[in-house]
Design goal:
The protein has 328 residues and is α/β, with parallel strands linked by helices. 42% of the residues lie in helices and 19% in strands. The protein binds nicotinamide-adenine-dinucleotide and (2S)-2-hydroxybutanedioic acid. The active site is at residue 188.
């Protein structure tokens, strides 16, 4: 028997990530090849005509899984009945801007969209925040949608996770699918800590295979931390196809589960694991089963890593304070 359609909201759908993401969702990349979807696309009035053009293209693409499209500038209409909300809408960072520069613009957007989701989304709606500053936007959304369980609110660090996999695969000359269990700790920013201490290729530790601690503790980390800025410098636009693909990976693994023995990185509400302050949205290694994520416990954190986990937590605490100051 055919499955009931899942309603997926994409905010900022007329933007460049939106344009890459909606066809992926309609093709089954996010939820699987047998899961029908109804797309809800939200953008702001200046982008309404462009949004309508995206809707026209979705109709023209004749995706068999796509059972309906709502394209609107009305946040209530966009949020009504959605099972999944992918929050891409916001003000993107431009060349030379720090993420903090865009904080105040995004805090007010996430506050009002939180209320709309809380009132109008389907019960148990799961939320992925992509728009920067992603961790703190997700925290604002959590604070202003108190009836949505905190387990249902996450932010995207899977792009950073995938970037780390890509760097290791290139360095070792192995398929990216063979590299497992890297970790992105902390903020989706240049303080994030890409950690390979538990990563493997086959049954061998990445650290042994690479056999170059200077590279792993230096250039590898900064390359992953700075990759977003490098893409902006090269394209004069922030990453879009890789961000859309990572958003699909994030939701797919959350809903359909992570493979046995494999974890992924997700920005989730800290419960104090690994002595990360509770009350931040922080990227941890997680496994997923039955639509729930669980932080991987018991990994050894050496002194080098500890400092990096703490540094990115400090930045998130500062962002949290800055976000709250924008609210008053
Ligand atoms: P974009 O400017 O091309 O698109 C953003 C869209 O959001 C625009 O169409 C804009 O009209 C819309 N928008 C603005 N305010 C809105 C609102 N209140 N409600 C609904 N829509 C609204 O930007 P983009 O390149 O698609 O990037 C989107 C966001 O994703 C940016 O914040 C960017 O920094 C972030 N990003 C995050 C990651 C990640 O890994 N977490 C990766 C890449 C980009
Ligand atoms: C990215 O990581 O590509 C995005 O978050 C863009 C940015 O602002 O760095």
């Amino acid at each position: 028997m055919a499955k009931d359609p899942v309603r997926v909201l994409v905010t900022g759908a007329a933007g460049q990530i939106g344009y890459a993401l909606v066809p992926m969702i309609a093709r089954g990349v996010m939820l699987g090849p047998d899961q029908p979807v109804i797309l809800h696309m939200l953008d702001i009035p200046p982008a309404a005509e462009s949004l309508n053009g995206v809707k026209m293209e979705l109709v023209d693409a004749a995706f068999p899984l796509l059972k309906g499209v709502v394209a609107t500038t009305d946040v209530v209409e966009a949020c009504t009945g959605v099972n999944i909300a992918v929050m891409v809408g916001g003000f993107p960072r431009k060349e030379g801007m720090e993420r903090k520069d865009v904080m105040s613009k995004n805090v007010s957007i996430y506050k009002s969209q939180a209320s709309a989701l809380e009132k109008h989304a389907a019960a148990n709606c799961k939320v992925l925040v992509v728009a920067n500053p992603a961790n703190t936007n997700a925290l604002i959304l959590k604070e202003f949608a108190p009836s949505i369980p905190e387990k249902n609110i996450s932010c995207l660090t899977r792009l950073d996770h995938n970037r780390a996999l890509g760097q290791i695969s290139e360095r070792l000359g192995v398929q990216v699918s063979e590299v497992k269990n890297v970790i992105i700790w902390g903020n989706h920013s240049s303080t994030q800590y890409p950690d390979v201490n538990h990563a493997t290729v086959g049954d061998k530790p990445v650290r042994t295979l690479v056999a170059d601690d200077a590279w792993l503790n230096g250039e590898f980390i900064t390359t992953v931390q700075q990759r977003g800025a490098a893409i902006i410098k090269a394209r004069k636009l922030s990453s879009a196809l890789s961000a859309a693909s990572a958003a699909c990976d994030h939701i797919r693994d959350w809903f359909l589960g992570t493979p046995q023995g494999t974890w992924v990185s997700m920005g989730v509400y800290s419960d104090g694991s690994y002595n990360v302050p509770a009350g931040l949205i922080y990227s941890f290694p997680v496994t997923c089963a039955n639509g729930e994520w669980t932080i991987v416990q018991g990994l050894h954190i050496d002194e080098f890593s500890r400092k990096k986990l703490d540094l990115t937590a400090e930045e998130l605490s500062e962002e949290k304070a800055l976000a709250y100051s924008c609210l008053s």
